[in-house]
Amino acid sequence: MTGIVRRSFDSADETRPFEDGKGRLDLLTGVRGPVGRAVFEPGWQWTKHVKPIAGTDSCRAAHVGYVVSGRMKVVMDDGETEEFGPGDFMQVEPGHDAWVLDDEPCVVLDWAGFGDYAKPA
């Protein structure tokens, strides 16, 4: 085992496209688990572009991540809301919807919730 690992999301172990070409998840799997980079295109919404893949009423992933660029709104099933933008750390529990704000792709790195994200049920 090596003490240093260098990988690129541009050569991901797996890429999962979202419905209607509204983005993708690039996944790297390391010894400590998966890390993902999601690119959510303008107009992306979880209920429209991932729900058909996941088959659940709301997102069931727990996310711990960092917003690289763009903006996203998250609405919990109980109505709690938050907006995230560049430089924000995010922690979101299961049971939510989300969508891209504005006309710029939202890029998020997540080291907790993307292992099974956008994976067919």
Structure description:
It comes from Streptomyces bikiniensis. This is Cupin domain-containing protein. Residues 63-110 form the Cupin type-2 domain. Pfam families: Cupin_2. It is a single chain. The chain has helices at residues 46-49, 51-54; strands at residues 14-17, 23-30, 33-40, 63-69, 71-76, 81-84, 89-92, 96-101, 106-110. The model has no long low-confidence stretch (mean pLDDT 96). By secondary structure, it is mainly β.
Total of helices: 2
Total beta strand runs: 9
Fraction of helical residues: under 10%
The average pLDDT value, as a whole number, equals 96
Backbone shape: globular
Order of helices and strands: EEEHHEEEEEE
Task: Give the strand order, joined by hyphens, for the main sheet.
Answer: 1-2-3-9-4-7
Straight-line distance between termini: 34 Å
Query: What share of the residues does DSSP label as strand, in percent?
Result: 35-45%
Sheet with the most strands, sense and barrel status: 6 strands, antiparallel
Oligomer state equals single chain
Structural class: mainly beta
Radius of gyration: 14 Å
The low-pLDDT segments are none
